Amino acid sequence: MQIGVLVNIGNHFDLKASVFQAPRRGIYSFSFHVVKVYNRQTIQVNLMQNDYPVISAFAGDQDVTREAASNGVLLMVEREDRVSLKLERGTLMGGWKYSTFSGFLVFPL
Hints:
Layout: E1 13-14, E2 19-21, E3 26-37, E4 43-49, E5 52-59, E6 66-77, E7 82-89, E8 100-108
Antiparallel strand pairs: 1-2, 2-7, 3-6, 3-8, 4-5, 4-7
């Protein structure tokens, strides 16, 4: 399923790789929201910075048809750092279709 991009000012989000590459050093705000299907499994999604997990979100309720997991962070990012989401465990509803990933520069350094 194709991922859609609503806003990509500067084209620093690579749609094919699903990775944001920082154009400059600074403090960035990142947030994400994912939905899992009813399949009696836990999902874990990590926000990754240069292939290292920074924060995670979990959804694991066994008695609901859909469940969401969200998280957000202010993060010190160096120029050309790569930020992305990684599904560590579980299955998302419709793949990434019902999920969001947002980021923006809060304060340049």
